[in-house]
């Protein structure tokens, strides 16, 4: 079960990154154009995908043999115990706040702006997390 969830989590990351980038591109290119049902659906699918990724990640976190708080001096263990989950939680909170602000905004321009700002910051946090993982050689675990 652990291996299957790990593969699902790894596959979903690419889906989420693609959805976030599509959402950001749509919001940036929209400008003053109306906020359409397609915009709303793409942004909602991004939100749902991010939350699904969170649930799968939390299940993996509590099942993982890598989560061991007694070895925090080891950079790889510290990455998986603290840094990875913290950065990904921050990015999911940003996606959620961005979607919520977009939903509550009255003007189309404000809706698009909320998406590209919050989703943009979220994708930067995700990419920093990925690059940090690569720097620590945490892929090898």
From TrEMBL:
The chain crosses the membrane at residues 12-30, 42-64, 84-102, 114-133. Keywords: Membrane, Transmembrane, Transmembrane helix. This is Cytochrome B. The lineage of its organism: Bacteria, Pseudomonadati, Bacteroidota, Sphingobacteriia, Sphingobacteriales.
